[in-house]
Specification:
Blueprint: H1 2-11, H2 13-25, H3 29-42, H4 47-63, H5 67-82, H6 94-98, H7 102-111, E1 122-129, E2 134-141, E3 144-149, E4 157-161, H8 163-170, E5 179-182, H9 185-191
Parallel strand pairs: 1-4
Antiparallel strand pairs: 1-2, 2-3, 4-5
Helix pairs in contact: 1-3, 2-3, 2-4, 3-4, 4-5
């Protein structure tokens, strides 16, 4: 935001807006969006700049051949016009998580690990997945979560339960009925290393 503010202060808000409009009218939508990006970040409440940048992104969306880029551009245009809207559905629903293979469940949990808080952590937890008759070992070290199939004699805690329970434990939830043997503090230490994601974040606005 500071860079955008200084650019606009140097060039002038009206000049940036005028050049953005000129680029838009010439069909140079990418340059128009780039110019207006600085103005929107310097002054997020500048309605005219937001609307014009939204128009530029909308045109880029209409021109995009790939559906991914089309979606990105049109999402940006919608955000500029309407602000950040609450998510209407959860992409990581319970059904989605429970359908994941066990190795992917651990990968999913690893994404939620706060690397900075986990930088000095050194813990190892075993899991007995009763409905699959599988044993896994998870460890957190140097800010990274890893897991492998099989038991480890160095695990300070072993948690036993069905795969649904494993998913809950990995995501930091209380799971009634899950049996634990060993140092229960390791589970609390692990939970403290997890981040909760906010899906309602800005894409193209400050």
């Amino acid at each position: 935001m500071e860079t955008a503010r200084r650019y606009v202060e140097l060039i002038g808000a009206e000049k940036v807006l005028a050049e953005g409009r000129k680029a838009f009218e010439a069909g140079d939508y990418r340059w128009a969006a780039q110019l207006l990006h600085s103005l929107v970040f310097a002054d997020p409440e500048h309605r005219e700049a937001r609307e014009l940048q939204a128009d530029a992104y909308e045109q880029l969306g209409h021109q995009a051949e790939g559906p991914q880029w089309r979606g990105i551009y049109l999402t940006a245009a919608k955000e500029l016009r309407e602000g950040v809207q609450p998510a209407r559905f959860a992409t990581a629903s319970a059904d989605t998580v429970l359908a994941m293979p066990v190795d992917i469940l651990f990968d999913f949990a690893a994404v939620h690990l706060a690397g900075d808080r986990a930088a000095t952590a050194d813990l190892r937890i075993g899991f007995r997945i009763t409905d699959l008759d599988e044993t896994w070992t998870m460890w957190v070290r140097h800010g990274v979560l890893n897991a492998r199939k099989g038991a480890s004699g160095t695990a300070g805690l072993t948690v036993a339960g069905p795969r649904a329970g494993l998913a809950g434990v990995l995501l930091g939830q209380d799971v009634p009925g899950a049996a634990a043997e060993g140092d229960g503090r390791l589970l609390e230490e692990y939970r403290a290393l997890l981040d909760a994601f906010d899906p309602d974040f800005p894409v193209v606005t400050p």
